[in-house]
Amino acid sequence: MLRIKKLDKFIARQFGLLFIGTFFICQFVLMMQFLWKYVDELIGKGLTMDVLAQFFWYMSLMLVPQALPLAILLSSLITFGNLGESSELTAIKAAGISLMQAFRSLIVIVVVVSLGSFYFQNVIGPNANMSFSRLLLSMKQKSPELEIPEGVFYDGIPGCNLYVQQKDVQTGMLYGVMIYKMTDSYEDAAIILADSGMLQSTAEKKHLLLTLYSGEWFENMKSQQVARGASVPYRREAFVKKKILLDFDSDFNVADASALSNNARGKSLRQISLDVDSLNHVYDSVGRRFYDDAKSAYYAYPSIKKADSLRAVKMAATKTFSFDSVYGRLDADKKLSAVDRAMGRVRSEMNDLDFKGMLTADGDRLIRQHKIEAINKFSVALQCILFFFIGAPLGAIIRKGGLGVPVIISVLVFIVFFIFDNSGYRMARGGMWTIWFGKSIALVVLTPLAVFFTYKANNDSVVFNVDFYRNFFMKLLGLRVKRAVYRKDVIINDPDYAADAVELAEINAEISDYARRHNLLLAPNVVKVFFKYSPDHVIENVSERLENVIEDLSNTKDKIVLSQLNNYPYMTVKAHTRPFERKWLNVAAAVVVPVGLFLYFRMWRFRLRLYRDLKTVKQANDALIARISEMEQRGR
Q: DSSP secondary-structure letter at 225?
């Protein structure tokens, strides 16, 4: 019988609460980003609240599968970051429970969410996408609200160009009105001038009533046959008040969904499979038809008999026939005519091939889009599992809760995933990459990262330990760390001053001898550095002995001794001897000239630094020896 442990309930409760909150946050962010894409379709349309509510509802349903992986990534990061920050994760591991056992309940939850994401994309998502596409198409087809500008021609009213010099916002009066009313053609246009006017919408919102005052109407007579060169009859009318009814449908009408039949995102896996078969059948038929047309055009030309074709082929193969010689015997007019006919035939064939290529490319694009969408339903579901195995181990490694560090890491991970996924999608859609490769490249790239983070978190790695990287780069760049020795409140063993003084005197002799024999001020020998290295552990031994003396003397109560201990530098014990421990690495570095030069000058710098450190050590040793001698004399 499966037992659900209290730890599983505790972690699941922590994750569940965060998952719900982060899901709505991610959903809101994605909706705002998606809204900016279509903001031009919403502004100035006079859409009612129910239409806008439908727009946002369908948008939110479409973005649920994208918000789920992000919510899992962020919530798993925060969950295990909080557990690590409050030392609860340490207590869990101290109890003998591994990290994978702590993941157990969340793995079940994430798998269920992943299956739900797949179901959502296959059942609910297509209907939401189709409804959203219909609504968006209807918004694009809706006429804009009347916002008549001043001083420019406004073409928002079908069949009219309206110019207004000035308008009164409070009364709605328009002054200095000029209207170009288009009918069948530009020759039949009517020009209306008026001192003032008012534009109002009818009650059913299907027409506009334009009332004009003190103006004139100029109009050409329509479609009348007139003799060539005769003047075109026109009509001129002066009016004091005139009303004109204009067609203007300002209501919102839902568009027909037949134009969205090729929308792959609005289909389930079963519909995609059926439509791909139908598209393959249709475009295979088109391709066979094009092939039959080409075969009949090039191999069954009416004026060329089969015997003539065979004879021409044989003559061309035996090189007894030359087109250039036949062309050279023609007259100039016939040459020009032949070239014109050939060029015309080539242009015609090129245009025909361009048209056929456009049709076949259209079919290929539709088929690729359907296959991409079919794979996308699986990849987005797997993305939930992948993001969990990135977020949860990272949270356990970093051990930082809240919305600070987890949000930054989540954004970085999502940006990397988005770059690979979007690039793969575009390459697959364009036919440059195969579909399965383009849609799986993001998962393939991040899966090793998830495995690496899970392995490191399960083994308590310091892969994201800030102090580790700080010490590494300080060592690489040769940055100094200041020694800090403080007085101890509790001292168990007093220092052995006599033995320490003898040891410091011996160290002085050794470093003096080493500095004289190696002449650290001179540049190092290139051959010895990279090709003939001999072991040199003197400074390493001296540094170890010196640290032992410093550790022993740090138990002193004498302030002068403590002050002198802080004057000792941390010495680099190997950087002045060779770039690497292994000989073949040194040879390889010498072959690669830029790397070799960098390592050579870096080694020279550390030799000069060691020379200064040895002088400082010797001075500090002398001062300590003198202080110990003074303390011993006082003690007697």
A: -
